[in-house]
Amino acid sequence: MLKYVIRGGKPLRGTILISGAKNAAVGILPATLLVKGVCRIENVPDISDIRLLLQILDEMGASIRRFSANVIEVDCTNVRDSVAPIELVRRIRASYYLIGAQLGRFGHAKVALPGGCNFGPRPIDQHIKGFEAIGAKVELINGYVCAEAPAAGLSGARVNLDVVSVGATMNIMIGAVLANGTTYIENAAKEPHIVDLANFLNAMGAKISGAGTDVIKIRGVRALHGGSYSIIPDQIEAGTYMAAAAAAGGDVTVQNLIPKHMECITAKLREMGAKITEYEDAIRVVSTGRLRRANIKTMPYPGFPTDMQSQVGVCMAIARGTSIITEGIYDNRFRYCFELNRMGASIQVDNKVAVIDGVEKLHGCSVKACDLRAGAAMVIAGLVADGTTTIEDAHYIERGYEAMIEKLRGIGADISRIETPSQDNVRTAG
Ligand code: EPU
């Protein structure tokens, strides 16, 4: 059992450093299975999702060396053609990338259906559509996704995605890198982590172009080789601390980010009244006085990210006027609103729309982290609120935020972490 306890109401001041991008790293690590050689990866976030993926690779026979908290070398040369342990796979959504990676490396894959944060149904039909297009036969057998390449190997094809999917785009890219011929992913997702995975694979010898646009071209190569790569900064971690500074007030510089990746978050917080200055690799957020209302609709990149919806939702909960959030990606990503209402917010949720009547104050109480980003929203609410906020199930937060407690203390927050032993701390996320 893990709790965070926050005594709120203190303005935030100082500089906060951003770690490597979780959703890039969770694709890049499984993709090392394709490489016979040493991949040196820098700026790997030290978060529990990554530790879990490294454990899965280790169980499969990868050789892993850690040089520091954020620099590792993974060598999958001698990895076994085996089934990754179901009890680990089911704890992380990103384990679906093992399907593309095993299919590419061994010509077949057997991976338990992934778990993940519960935002309603999260199908993987588009991943399967892509693997089938490049020649694999895919079946669901007893909760496992089983994929088999033809005897002559996978072959390049055109895949037109029916929905813009981060996971499907990255998984098909991983599966097609070693296929014969050229694969085109049309209606591809364009998130920064898609580009980062393509850059990682290219650094190891792949021939991928167009990542970051809606058509990605993957010319199959015979083999990948070892190399070095540094993961991009985490857009959502950076956005979370920007939202925290806007909501709690103060003067915070969020350092080691790519301002271009932050554009629509920056624009929204500016619209709400925060003063934001962009530098080459940093953004300064100055916030005094009450924020103004705004609306958001979550969309694939470069639209407003669903993974920032709850954090900006807290800003709206204390803004002047009525804000509306329309969730455009998931069916059920408003559970945090009920927790915010316990703290005095006034939010009505109807299906995929939340109507938020801004209140002047939130009040500390005991709340739950319903998932990773909902947990981050509770932290921001705790920083804003009067009195003490206790966040239960804080394990979720540590799936995706490196050293959040230390980072927030560094800018003046009064936050502590209390861990008590429990039999029941197995959670899924991502
Ligand atoms: N979808 C389908 N079929 C598919 C795949 C997706 O219908 O085969 C639908 C989904 O149900 C959803 C939409 O397409 O409505 C977008 O889903 P996407 O595939 O883009 O999401 P994902 O790959 O499951 C990743 C991140 C999420 C993030 C989303 C959207 C990982 C491990 N997860 O999920 O991250 O919300 O992209 O950007 O990379 C988080 O970091 O907190 C998190 C949940």
Residue share in β-strands: 25-35%
Number of helices: 14
CATH topology term of the largest domain: UDP-n-acetylglucosamine1-carboxyvinyl-transferase, Chain
Structural class label: alpha+beta
For the record, give the distance between the C-alpha atoms at the N and C termini, rounded to a whole number. Answer: 19 Å
Low-confidence segments, given as residue ranges, are: none
Mean pLDDT, rounded to whole units? 95
CATH superfamily of the largest domain: Enolpyruvate transferase domain
Radius of gyration: 21 Å
Main pleated-sheet profile: 4 strands, mixed
CATH class of the largest domain: Alpha Beta
Considering DSSP H and I runs of 4 or more, what fraction of the residues is helical?
25-40%
Tell me what the structure shows.
The structure is a single chain. The chain is of the alpha+beta class and 430 residues long. It folds into two domains: 2-19 and 233-425, Alpha-beta prism (UDP-n-acetylglucosamine1-carboxyvinyl-transferase, Chain), CATH 3.65.10.10; 22-230, UDP-n-acetylglucosamine1-carboxyvinyl-transferase, Chain (Alpha-beta prism), CATH 3.65.10. Helices cover 31% and strands 26% of the residues. It has helices spanning 22-31, 48-59, 86-89, 97-106, 125-133, 166-176, 192-203, 235-248, 263-271, 309-317, 335-342, 372-384, 395-398, 404-410; strands at 2-7, 12-17, 38-42, 63-68, 71-75, 108-112, 137-141, 144-148, 158-160, 182-186, 207-209, 215-219, 227-230, 250-255, 275-278, 282-287, 295-297, 322-326, 346-350, 353-357, 366-368, 388-392, 414-419. The strands form six sheets. A four-stranded mixed sheet has the order 21-22-1-23, with helices on one face. The model has no long low-confidence stretch (mean pLDDT 95). Bound molecules: uridine-diphosphate-2(N-acetylglucosaminyl) butyric acid. Uridine-diphosphate-2(N-acetylglucosaminyl) butyric acid binds next to helix 1, helix 5, helix 6 and helix 12.
